[in-house]
Amino acid sequence: MRIENRILVGKGETEAAILPAMANRHGMIAGATGTGKTITLKVMAESFSDLGVPVFLADVKGDLSGCCKPGEMNVNIEKRLKGVGIDPESFPMQRYPVRFWDVYGEGGHPVRTTVSDFGADLLSRLLGLTDVQKGVLSIAFRVADDNGWLLIDLKDLRAMVAYITEHAAELLNEYGNISKQSAGAIQRALLELEDAGGTLFFGEPEIDLHDWMQTDENGRGYINIFHCAKLYQSPLLYSTFMLWLLAELFEELPEVGDPEKPKLVFFFDEAHLLFSDAKKPLRDKIEQVVKLIRSKGVGVYFISQQPSDLPDAVLAQLSNRVQHALRAYTPAEQKAIRVAAQTFRANPNFSTEEAITELGTGEALVSFLDEKGRPSVVERCTILPPQSMMGTIDDERRKSEIMADTLYGKYDEPVDNESAYEILNEKSKKAAEEKAEAEAKEAEVREQEKAAKEKEKADKEAEKAKAKAEKEKAQKRKKTASAIGKVASSAANTIGRQAGKSLYRGILGILKKLF
């Protein structure tokens, strides 16, 4: 509830209110399940909206969607208001400007980013890659950047990994070794990510974070509700998405120093997932972003059960704190309560450690920064009720809210622009065509050479046959001539003998007549 440019969250002996100028110093809402963390989150989100500050909420359980409908005054709300000295008549029940978002595009506008913007580090965490496999993935990103090939969706990345594997020998000297085993492991992990819905998250049109930082016509900040009941079933995907969001905000927003009020307040539910299984370099990056993002005018509020769920370096940055009840049934839980109590500035009027276990639903220990940036003495407070409806809305109301939004249609249809997949496919197609053309030319040359050899062979065989025929003809002529000669000689001999005999007989006849 906004009171005199302050955000009133609850009231005990004194008012527990956040000063807008200190709201970007981050904060935490902690407490066991069912102790009222969601109520506190809604009260704070509504108050920031009234102040003109856009809000981003991760709605894990689906019970924050009621912000789009006014709440209903009832006996319990009236009793709570009167208990903190607020006249129910001065506490209007109202709806808030809401925008719904969902990675899967089912419970809100689709949220997409490109593979390039997501980056190799976060993607390696999401895929569960080893250091060696992460190195190969980084090479894929680097080669794509050097060639100007956009990595937009997962099919681009798969094509890129296939490309560097195929050209590993060519890339070795410039980029390093690319093992087929690591590339194969990356491809398998990408297939698993596709099956988990990764194809919906990576693509275009890419989300413009400035669409989360708008106000309505009345100057109230939009409450951006990220519907992640389904996404939360994949904790690694959920936490990695939140990491990406924090990193994007840090990279995109300009430095503003200490503004009069935040440009955006981000509530991260189930915050322990952000740090579970995160390796040291990634944890260091998270801690750095949390430390520095306040200078971009962004306040980050973590919601978890135990303060110990967060690293000490992050916990030290959370100046605005609301601690709901914790239960101590085991030595470990008792120790956690002592640790939680030590994070507050002590109040001499009660024991913080004892109070944590005694708090009822809707009560909390609260400490916010004063105008000089000092944590206030912890106060035991009753948290105000929200002004919008508690609980979820039905699918029809959600759909109507989405369709009535001015952003409807901007992100709802995916766009597949030319990127690495298309470029590499075209290169592969061209290479295949060139190879086929070269093979066809080689085949043609081989056919020509074969035909020439066959012709040469045929010519040789023809010449050989001709020579053989001429030889046989000559031999035949020789045989014929020889035969003719013999016949002629025989004939001559015969004729000679006959002529001689006739001449002899003629001469004898003449002699007889003379004598």
Structural topology:
Elements: E1 2-3, E2 6-11, E3 15-18, E4 27-30, H1 37-50, E5 55-59, H2 75-83, E6 98-102, E7 109-110, H3 115-118, H4 120-127, H5 131-147, H6 154-166, H7 168-175, H8 180-195, H9 198-201, E8 223-227, H10 235-252, E9 264-268, H11 272-275, H12 280-292, E10 298-304, H13 312-315, E11 320-323, H14 331-342, H15 352-358, E12 363-367, E13 379-383, H16 395-404, H17 420-514
Parallel strand pairs: 4-10, 4-11, 5-8, 5-9, 6-7, 6-8, 9-10
Antiparallel strand pairs: 1-2, 2-3, 2-13, 11-12, 12-13
Helix pairs in contact: 4-10, 5-6, 5-8, 6-8, 6-17, 10-12, 14-15
Kindly summarize this structure in a few lines.
The protein has 515 residues and is of the alpha/beta class.
Instruction: Give the class from helix and strand content and strand pairing.
Output: alpha/beta
The number of helices is 17
Taken as a percent bin, the fraction of beta residues is 5-15%
Low-confidence segments, given as residue ranges, are: none
Number of E-type strands: 13
Main pleated-sheet profile: 13 strands, mixed
- Helix content range of the residues, please? 40-55%
Q: Termini distance?
A: 187 Å
Please compute the radius of gyration using only Cα atoms: 47 Å
The string of secondary-structure elements, in order, is EEEEHEHEEHHHHHHHEHEHHEHEHHEEHH
Mean of pLDDT: 88
Shape: rod-shaped
